[in-house]
Design brief:
By secondary structure, this protein is of the alpha/beta class. The protein is 28% helix and 26% strand. Bound molecules: ligand UGB.
Length: 600
């Protein structure tokens, strides 16, 4: 008590609160007043931050933690009384009439949307030291994820404005959730690249704070073993995005500006924007309050499964069940085989890819009740079966996809499934872990993330009528992948399948060894035969028709040794590099009409 004299009245209140909620141990080793007062003040400053950045403050955090720790000790199953079943959702087939209808509807809605990227995770599993959004999405052009995301948003909003025939009113807002681990580097990446063409005022960074660690089942806060004036902290999870959006006032600002949708996405998925317009079209058409974009999921794949949960007391929800919980839940409810593929070759439970589309109005209504708090969980590692002590401190965690858990039954919660090759190829696993993934399941590595971009682009061109050679199978970093022609275009060329179709005509062919890079908006591929590398750069006012036969040694995709430290980390985690041997590159920097004739 004597020690409190060094604090301001507010700080005293906070210290008293800590005592009231059973945290007296934090002060036990404090020396007399006058000794280490600065350290004591910095301690209470940290407590103030922890208190402020959690909905309901530390009192609420400790209370929730005690409840969850007691449940965990008692071995209580979070799904007790719930039966899983396969939910029904909108299943899209890329390029068919239904898809095109939704895509068109979705593009119209983009100008009413705000985009939110959760990028607070450091990617320890990937074994990469930088921020993940700075990683090249593919190494043919070297475009990083963040650049691709921003350009996609800009081009989609431009397409949306065009559809609105001049009545477009606003710059689509883009929020990035960062953490202490990623904030400075994300800002630096944006600033050193002029925000990749977006106005800096359009981009907002919201930094999530870590939460206090818990030392025991009584939820006593854990002190740093090396510093008695510092509470240990750990990340709370991507679920923080909801409380941050709410407390920042952005949601209200967006609502006042007439926005209708908030789209959430993750840091390393190079395919995502191919399915965003159609998924947004589904949201608008079906008036979904929550729409979760998903992909067919291989049994035991390390992504959650979208599941209908029905409780004996009548409660029902469609929600993500994490992959480590799905198998035990199925086994405990009469599905003795657990998480297995069905006759389609996939699990009947669609895979959660954490691409959520929320309708802003109902979202604000819900957050006004909860303050943005998301149902949390705790995952203590106990020393032994008595479950009385932890191996190391634990903390509460939350996931953004758990948002629907507090919604009333009247909420319209749906999901949209796309083709397996279209929308999801994350970069999460390091080469060693990826190589251990069961055969046939996606690797979720830098190797598979990049090759999936080429596959998806090649498949899209095929659907648009281009004859594309079949891929060959190759092994990089111990992972067998399909190598398709390296087809890459920037979002200016196409952000929808309708765009692609309008820019491809006649009879075109691309061989497997080829690379096709299109950087320009007004480029038409017409009667092109490509066996080698062709790179087209053009300014917006240059109308370019690409035709004729291009043949050269091209760019080869070559295996490298992942342990060769002379190579940059972002190359080693792929297991291959692009050897740029020979290419035809044309740049059209002035307005005008051009036709590419390879013999010129
Ligand atoms: N992230 C944050 O912004 N803050 C954090 O505190 C933590 C993460 P992971 P995870 O779609 O592939 C999720 O670690 O959580 C960001 C789903 O739960 O890559 O293991 C981070 O920067 C799972 O159901 O994923 O698994 C990244 O952008 C499945 O859908 C994002 O959150 C899986 O993602 C995800 O973080 C998937």
């Amino acid at each position: 008590q004597k020690n409190l004299s060094v604090f301001s009245p507010d700080q005293v209140e906070l210290a008293k609160k800590l005592l009231e909620i059973g945290q007296g141990h934090l002060f036990e080793d404090w020396p007399d007043p006058g000794v280490e007062d600065d350290e004591k003040i910095s301690f209470i400053d940290q407590v103030a931050l922890l208190n402020l950045s959690y909905p309901g403050g530390l009192t609420s955090y400790i209370k929730t933690a005690r409840g969850l720790l007691a449940d965990s000790k008692a071995g209580k199953n979070p799904f007790d009384g719930f039966k899983p079943s396969v939910p029904s959702g909108e299943i899209l087939t890329f390029g068919d009439d239904n898809f095109m209808k939704y895509e068109e509807t979705g593009v119209k809605q983009v100008q009413n949307a705000a985009f939110v990227l959760v990028a607070g995770g450091l990617g320890e599993r990937l074994g990469y030291n930088g921020i993940k959004v700075a990683l090249p999405m593919e190494t043919t052009t070297g475009t990083c994820f963040l650049q691709h995301y921003i350009e996609s948003i800009l081009c989609l909003s431009e397409a949306s404005c065009k559809q609105a025939q001049g009545e477009c009113r606003r710059d689509v807002p883009f929020v990035i959730m960062t953490s202490d681990d990623t904030h400075a580097r994300t800002l630096q990446l944006l600033e050193s690249n002029s925000y990749f063409g977006m106005k800096s005022t359009q981009v907002k960074l919201l930094k999530q704070e870590k939460v206090a660690c818990l030392a025991d089942n009584d939820a006593r806060l854990a002190l740093d073993p090396k510093n008695k004036y510092r509470i240990q902290t750990k990340p709370h999870g991507h679920g923080d995005v909801h409380s941050l959006l709410y407390s920042s006032g952005l949601l209200k600002e967006w609502k006042d500006a007439g926005l209708r949708w908030v789209l959430f996405f993750q840091d390393t998925n190079g395919l995502l924007f191919k399915a965003i317009p159609a998924a947004l079209g589904v949201s608008a058409t079906k008036e979904y309050h929550v729409n979760s974009l998903s992909v067919p999921r291989k049994a035991k794949e390390a992504i959650g499964g979208i599941t209908r949960l029905t409780h004996a007391d009548g409660r029902e929800m469609v929600i993500n069940v994490e992959y480590n919980q799905l198998d035990p839940l199925l086994r405990a409810t009469g599905h003795s085989d657990g998480d297995v593929n069905c006759e389609t070759g996939y699990s009947p439970y669609p895979g959660n890819i954490n691409q959520l589309i929320l309708e802003l109005g109902p979202y604000i209504d819900e957050l006004s009740k909860t303050g943005g708090a998301i149902k949390e969980f705790v995952n203590p590692k106990y020393k032994d079966s008595t479950k009385t002590e932890f191996k190391s401190s634990t903390r509460l965690e939350c996931m953004m996809q758990d948002y629907p858990k507090t919604l009333p039954p009247s909420a319209r919660v749906g999901f949209t499934v796309t083709d397996p090759w279209l929308a999801y190829a994350p970069v999460k696993n390091n080469p060693e872990d990826a190589a251990k993934v069961p055969k046939g399941n996606p690797y979720h590595s830098a190797t598979s993330g990049e090759t999936a971009v080429y596959r998806s682009n090649s498949m899209i061109l095929r659907k648009a009528g281009v004859k594309i050679d079949d891929p060959v199978s190759e092994v990089f970093n111990g992972q067998e992948v399909e190598v398709w022609p390296r087809v890459v275009w920037n979002p200016k060329w196409a952000v929808t399948f309708a765009d692609v179709k309008s820019k491809v005509s006649g009879s075109n062919f691309v061989s497997q060894k080829s690379t096709l890079v299109i950087k320009g908006s007004n480029v038409t591929i017409q009667d092109l035969s490509l066996d080698g590398t062709l790179v087209i750069n053009s300014v917006d006012d240059a109308e370019v028709i690409v035709q004729g036969s291009v043949q050269n040694n091209g760019w080869a995709i070559e295996s490298i040794d992942k342990d060769n430290t002379a190579l940059p980390e972002e190359v080693r985690i792929r297991g291959f590099k692009i050897n740029k041997r020979e290419q035809l590159e044309r740049s059209y920097n002035e307005p005008g009409k051009y036709s590419l004739n390879p013999r010129d």
